[in-house]
Amino acid sequence: MKVLVLNCGSSSLKFQLIETDRHRIETESDEVMAEGQVEKIGQAESIITYSSAKGDKIKETAVVLEHSTAIEVLLQHLTHAKHGVIEKTADIEAVGHRVVHGGESFSESAVITAAVLDKIRECVALAPLHNPPNILGYEVASQLLPNTPHVAVFDTAFHQTMPPYAYLYALPYVLYERFAIRRYGFHGSSHRYVVQRLAKVAKTSLAGLRIITIHVGNGCSMAAVRDGKSVDTSMGMTPLEGLVMGTRAGDIDPAIILFLMEKEDLELDQANNLLNKHSGLLGISGIGNDMRELEKAAAEGHTRAQLAIEVFCYRIRKYIGAYTAALGGVDHIIFTAGIGQNSAQIRRKSCQGLEFLGIEFSEERNQALNRKEGLITTDDSRAKVWIIPTNEELVIARDTMLCVSNGGK
Amino acid sequence: MRLSKAGVLGAGTAGKGVIRSLAGAGLSVVFCELSEEKVKQATREISEGLDREISRWDVTAGEKRLIVSRIVGTSDMRKMAGCQVVIETTSGDLEDKQKLFEELDALFPEDTVLISDCSTICISEIARKTRHPERVAGVHFSLPVHKRPIVELVRGRFTSDATMETVRRLAKLLKKKALEVLEMPGLVTTRVMIPYINEAMHIVMEGLVPPAEVDEAVRLGFKLPVGPLAMADKIGLDTLLKDMERLFKALGMFQYRPCPILRRLVRMGHLGVKTRQGFFNYDEDGNPTGGAINGF
Fold this sequence. Notes:
The complex is a heterodimer of chains A (409) and B (296). Chain A has 16 helices and 14 strands. Chain A has helices at residues 22-27, 67-78, 114-122, 131-144, 164-167, 173-179, 188-201, 255-263, 268-277, 280-285, 291-299, 303-327, 337-342, 344-351, 363-368, 392-404; strands at residues 2-8, 12-19, 31-39, 46-52, 57-62, 94-99, 110-111, 150-154, 210-216, 220-226, 229-233, 332-336, 374-375, 384-387. An eight-stranded mixed beta sheet of chain A has the order 5-4-3-2-1-6-8-7, with helices on both faces. In chain A, helix 7 packs across helix 16 and helix 11 packs across helix 12. Chain B is an alpha/beta fold and 296 residues long. Chain B is 45% helix and 16% strand. The mean pLDDT of chain B is 94. The chains are: A alpha/beta (409), B alpha/beta (296).
């Protein structure tokens, strides 16, 4: 089945056209036929990139003022006489939409019906920045491809298996009932993918396994996974909680914000900006939020860059400890996403001092497998640490195919 | 037609706020001032204003760079060619604005919407001297422009539906609630705010309490972020005096007759934050330094 995967942001749109079916899932032979993105939608000049499995690579600029135009542009490229990969848009058999927040309504992906769309809209209050562009992407795509089934795949769905003692905050219960304030967690498609991939590469069943997944990239989150199901995760009601991120603070004493609002006379949006845009690696280092830039500066002796990296890795170590306790032990730890896959230093520092958990780290493998997939602990290590590159688009494509196929998942 | 380029005439207190807001909303902005020196000064002050926003966690350094990259200043009105809307924010009287709008009317094609940011001068009168009055409308931004979530929109007697639609779209782009107000002097915000400030000035003149205590009483008593006299200093006492005189003349109501203190301060050149002294004293960043006027 040819599935168009769409990831719509407020001013950008990423897409992949993926050929997948049950056999391809079994044999891990799903094929990315084409991919690309449209950036700076609505601005004076948008940037369109497109590449196909045939080897075509295109980068162009155009005036793309709206998401409807962006999707029209990508469909034109996909059906292009020269570099296209399908003859006509009707060859697209399903469309998978990344939807960030599904609230408590969705623990699985869902074919988008009017009722499903209403529920997604109800979740806008929980994700006011993310869900609206996801919804817009669906509305536009469903007009351009009205006869094609559309499926929503939620970042939050994988974590809906958390028990109440893991997702409730110690706030008045009435606030949970009134506003659905609780931990939801994000990057669900990524955490789910790497867990399932682990089963394949380690040739093991997930039953009985205690796994900690570490997705560290643009956003950062960890998950505690038992029997293949999420039982806790570091992001909270919003993506702000948990690990140190590029510009997000992650965990802090909540009273700090009240203190700063009083002392510096901050308004709500200033406090929000402080936590989301001025903090994290940028806030501590004063240089930037890009780990590569910080690692370079740290190597050159920049003390605050070094400090930012130490804080980042220590937070991960703390969570490894916490989730080991939550799981009653740990069998596998998986690093994934941009930093997790590409920084040997971060993986090493995040695992430092964890020998008592049965981790025998192999720096040789850590270096050799950088940007690849594989085991970075010794063969004798009781708890195993892996690099597994993530692939959220593939999860969306597979879920979409399974949802629309006869019998579902 | 999507709005992507705007012109701003005048880069005073309100003008700088409008320029920063438009650029922050993603538009290319060309602003025009009377001289190259004033252009440089305004450019520097916009940059400094954004630095203050960074220090208040409002924007990041990257966002400032993006905003600044969208702004171009000029002393030649012709360099605003291509702007889809032009917003006039100068401080002149009706005759000055009529003259400006005649020039704009001659310079820009008739599909360019011409807007005056003013609450006390009649838009219909401004538009009367142009050849295309249907493309003239009024807006009134509250200060600071980029923070206040509301803008008043005014349809003049000649303003067309198409022009009003463009103005509404502009308000939406700036993420402001648009309040459409009938063309009456003072609109809503200025008309309500001026008697409040005027009364605070009378209290000071009568010697009830010093200025700081007037502001503190009102601010704490009504949980407001800033008191009436500090608000007057932010607006600019000369601007406030002009507005009061116009409203008193137009409406004939005594609550708009300027308090003698206001006239005196303006005569002395103490105009508020912009001159670092008004009812209170300020540093170069506009922060109060603790001093206030003392005796009359």
